[in-house]
Structure prediction request, 198 residues.
Amino acid sequence: MTQTSATSSTTTTTTTLSGLRSLYLIRVAFSLIWVALVVTTSASLVSTDRPTVIAAVLLVIYPLWDVIATLLERRMSGTGSTDRVGTTNMALGLATAAGMINAVFSTIGTALLVFGIWALLSGAIQLVVAIRRRRTVGAQWPMVISGGLSVLAGASFAAMSASATSSLSTVAGYSAFGAFWFLVSATALSIRSRREKR
Prediction:
C-alpha cells in the first residue's frame, strides 16, 4: 500500500511538472506575440495621447489572458475552489481588465497606472504561489525572481505614469522579461522531470 501511494504521488508530481511546463511555454508564445503587437502599434504614443484601438484591446486582453492561464493552472493541479490565492489572482485580473476598459478612454498615463498596479499585485501573488509550490513541485526559483521583478516593474510603471514622456512601449519590455522567466522556468521543470525519471 505504501508503494502504491508513492507511485501515485510520483505520477501526480510528474503530471503537474509536465502540465506546468506546457502552460509556461504557451505563456511564452502569448507574451512574445503580445510584445510584437504592442511595439508595432504603441511605441510612439506618449501620455497626453489616448491609446489606439488596437493598443486598447491589447491592454485589456493581457490581464484577461492571465485569468485564463490561472484557471488552467487550477484545473491542472486539481485545487479548484480551494485555491484562494488563484481565486484572488483571477479576481484581480478581471478587475484590472474592467479598470483598463475605463483607462484606455483616458490617457496613456492612466492606462500605464492601471497596468502598473496590476503588475505589482499580480507579481506579489506570483511570489506567494512560487514559494508554496516550491515544496511540492520544486524548480520555482525563476518564478520567484519573476514575481519579485514584476512587483518592482509595477511600482515603476505606476511612478512613471505621471510623466509627460511615459509610453506604452515600456509594458512591452515587462512582458518580454516575463516571457524569458517563463521559458527559464519551463527549462528548470524539464530538468527536474528528467532527474525524477532516473
In short: Residues 2-42 form the longest helix (41 residues). Residues 2-197 form one domain. The chain has one domain: 2-197. The chain has a mean pLDDT of 82.
